[in-house]
From TrEMBL:
<dbReference type="InterPro" id="IPR013108">
    <property type="entry name" value="Amidohydro_3"/>
</dbReference>
<keyword id="KW-0479">Metal-binding</keyword>
<dbReference type="Pfam" id="PF07969">
    <property type="entry name" value="Amidohydro_3"/>
</dbReference>
<protein>
    <submittedName>
        <fullName>Cytosine deaminase</fullName>
        <ecNumber>3.5.4.1</ecNumber>
    </submittedName>
</protein>
<keyword id="KW-0378">Hydrolase</keyword>
<dbReference type="InterPro" id="IPR032466">
    <property type="entry name" value="Metal_Hydrolase"/>
</dbReference>
<feature type="domain" description="Amidohydrolase 3">
    <location>
        <begin position="42"/>
        <end position="396"/>
    </location>
</feature>
<dbReference type="GO" id="GO:0004131">
    <property type="term" value="F:cytosine deaminase activity"/>
</dbReference>
<dbReference type="InterPro" id="IPR052349">
    <property type="entry name" value="Metallo-hydrolase_Enzymes"/>
</dbReference>
<dbReference type="InterPro" id="IPR011059">
    <property type="entry name" value="Metal-dep_hydrolase_composite"/>
</dbReference>
<dbReference type="GO" id="GO:0046872">
    <property type="term" value="F:metal ion binding"/>
</dbReference>
<dbReference type="GO" id="GO:0035888">
    <property type="term" value="F:isoguanine deaminase activity"/>
</dbReference>
<dbReference type="GO" id="GO:0006209">
    <property type="term" value="P:cytosine catabolic process"/>
</dbReference>
Length: 441
């Protein structure tokens, strides 16, 4: 007797007709032909559709999400106006409003199969109402979402009065990760000093580091170099993530040929944010116009772990967004020109296993003993999932179904001809039409 059986699933690694047995919130067994051997409380017929570990967003701003229009809209659509708008909104924030908006977004995330989020928390305001609110949210959503919080000095670790002390108080309150934003300090010297101070703090406290780094078009921005060097100096290998790195799209190729091996030596992870990066960067260009995404393929080729972040949804910086990590990967595939089959598999990894590795998630994956956290997609492989931004048919957390959706199927009436159209049946090498997944108790 097991709690849940999933039969006839396709897996991201290419295996087909696979069954999963789930008991006590974990994957008990995985392989072909298992469903016939088990009695289950519930059976889900995947009908050949793709079963994946849940999506993971390693870079988000949960304190700002869904605040679009408060106190006004970002008319220029620029990063700097967004920061100024947030500075106007921040003094008016209340714990109650922050919790309400963050929980609404978490509900959206669950519906999209997004069950792990790393959120930056602005600690520039010494009231720390943002930290208080998101710590409360972390407790509320813990049965459903793995939520990590980053102490983020939005206005600069040295530039913002009391930011340094507020950051430490946020860590004392239980915030998980040390953040930073060196390119927003007043001088290059202050920026380098902030990286050193924050890496030292993380080493002393035994915490990870995740810095907004070189989020600029300036090809002379060199803070990732400093971060890599300080990672090595303080022995923080595999505990440091550099987010954005948009300056790398403008850097000289010779310098990058030295920089990427240094990053690989430090075992730094990289978190580009494709939607936001291409929207906010290159604003001083006419044409040719730079698009701002870092050198994704080159970093992956060097063995560096790359995870894609959503960053923002309907906030002062970004008026769009849906909580859909497949939308993030879809944009990355286009902007980074990840056209090969291998590239698109790597893009899927960047919103699943790579980002789980960056967050240090335990029990994540599709192997016996892993947590039974899963999402069934209306697609038959990772490439099709990205192409279609596939419907999440079933979302499972610790072996319990927490979200369901109907397949996206249209019924056409063309004269006397009536037929259904399922986008998942249009892949050139598809096994052909399959019935919609059926659920039975």
């Amino acid at each position: 007797m097991v709690d849940l059986v999933i039969r006839d699933a396709s897996l991201p690694d290419g295996r087909k007709n696979i069954d999963l047995l789930i008991a006590d919130g974990r994957i008990l067994a995985i392989g072909p032909g298992l469903a016939a051997q088990a009695t289950a409380g519930e059976t889900i017929d995947a009908s050949g559709y793709l079963l994946s570990p849940p999506f993971v967003d390693p870079h988000f701003h949960l304190d700002a999400t869904l605040s679009l229009g408060l106190p006004r809209l970002n008319r220029s659509g620029t990063l700097l106006e967004g920061i100024a708008l947030w500075g106007e909104l921040r003094p008016t924030l209340t714990r109650e409003a922050l919790v309400e908006r963050a929980l609404r977004y978490c509900h959206l995330a669950i519906s999209q199969g997004l069950l792990a989020i790393r959120s930056h928390v602005d600690v520039s305001d010494p009231r720390l109402v943002t930290a208080e609110a998101l710590l409360e949210v972390r407790d509320i959503v813990s049965p459903y979402i793995d939520l990590q919080l980053v102490a983020f000095p939005q206005d600069g670790y040295y530039r913002a009065p009391q930011a340094a002390s507020a950051l430490e108080r946020a860590l004392d309150m239980g915030v998980d990760v040390v953040g930073g934003i060196p390119h927003f300090e007043r001088t290059m010297a202050d920026a380098a000093a902030s990286v050193t101070a924050l890496c030292r703090l993380a080493a002393e406290r035994g915490l990870p580091v995740d810095m907004h780094c070189d989020e600029t078009d300036d090809p002379q921005s060199r803070h990732i170099e400093t971060l890599a060097a300080e990672t090595i100096r303080f022995g923080l290998h595999r505990r440091v993530a550099a987010s954005h790195l948009t300056s790398m799209h403008s850097m000289d190729n010779y310098y990058v040929s030295k920089l990427i091996p240094l990053m690989a030596e430090a075992e730094i992870s990289v978190i580009p944010n494709p939607l936001i990066n291409i929207m906010l960067q290159g604003r001083h260009d006419s044409y040719p116009k730079r698009r701002g995404l870092t050198r994704v393929r080159e970093l992956m080729d060097a063995g560096i772990t790359v995870g894609f972040g959503h960053d923002c949804v309907m906030d002062p910086w970004y008026t769009m967004g849906s909580g859909d990590m497949l939308e993030v990967a879809h944009m990355a595939v286009h902007v980074a020109q990840m056209a090969s089959v291998e590239d698109r598999h790597r893009a899927f990894d960047a919103i699943t296993v790579n980002s789980a590795r960056i967050m240090g998630l335990e029990g994540y994956g599709l192997e016996p003993g892993c947590n039974a956290d899963l999402v069934l997609l209306q697609a038959r492989d990772p490439l099709e999932a990205i192409r279609l931004k596939a419907t999440r048919l079933v979302v499972i957390r610790r072996g319990t179904v927490i979200a369901r959706a109907q397949p996206r199927v249209s019924t056409l009436t063309l004269g006397t001809d009536t037929r259904t159209v399922n986008g998942a049946d249009y892949a050139p090498f598809s096994a052909g039409p399959s019935p919609s997944p059926m659920h039975k108790d």
